[in-house]
Amino acid sequence: MKKWLYTALMVTLLWMALLSAFLLRGSFVHEFLVHSVGIYLGAPWFLFLIAWGLIRFVLLGGISSGLKHLFCISIMIAGAFLVSLGVGTLIHQADIRGVRQFVERIVPQLEEYKRAHGQYPESLTLLLGVLPPELFKEPDGYRVNADGFRFEYRDTAELIAGYCFDSSTREWHSVIKK
């Protein structure tokens, strides 16, 4: 196989891995897909290649160049999946940091709003220039209650878990989302 073809394949695989990482952002679906493909397709494929290589080596005394090319391509595909998983996890962690930094920045503005108006705003749109992170796009991302306010977001890397910031405790804690 020509060297330029390997290079083109590797660039394409890396591009697809990065695209999937940015689109799925390390979510549960992203991890599930990568692990499923690895376990249910990748593992049997590698076992088949190893068995085929051993049979050819024992019966014919060598491994064909076609089998070597298949094995090399398989390694590139597996590497692309690992890159996708790693980059997706990093993106997810950055999203979580962004949410927490957003809350740190907005809490003083909420307190100032309460001092000026006697209550916390019903929605974040009442504070000018505030655009919440993507994880807060759910309807219950910000709520006002009798004791203060609360921020909640679903952790997209977990199936039913989320996190909550309560103004009365000023701490984050884990919650089970329905």
Summarize the structure.
The chain has 178 residues and is α+β, with helices and mostly antiparallel strands. It has 3 helices and 4 strands; from the N terminus they run αααββββ.
The side-by-side strand order for the widest beta sheet comes to 1-2-3-4
The whole-number mean of residue pLDDT values reads 86
Q: Per the principal axes of the C-alpha atoms, what is the gross shape?
A: elongated
Q: Outline the biggest β-sheet.
A: 4 strands, antiparallel
Rg calculated over all Cα atoms: 25 Å
> How many angstroms does the end-to-end distance come to?
52 Å
Low-confidence stretches: none
Care to describe what's here?
It is a single chain. It contains three helices and four strands; from the N terminus they run αααββββ. By secondary structure, it is α+β, with helices and mostly antiparallel strands. It has two domains: 91 residues; 78 residues, no CATH class. A four-stranded antiparallel sheet has the order 1-2-3-4, with no helix packed on it. Strand 2 and strand 3 form a beta hairpin. Helix 1 packs parallel to helix 3 and helix 2 packs antiparallel against helix 3. The longest helix is centred in the middle third of the chain and has 53 residues. It starts with a helix and ends with a strand. The mean pLDDT is 86.
How would you summarize the topology of this molecule?
Blueprint: H1 3-24, H2 28-60, H3 65-117, E1 142-145, E2 148-154, E3 161-166, E4 171-176
Antiparallel strand pairs: 1-2, 2-3, 3-4
Helix pairs in contact: 1-3, 2-3
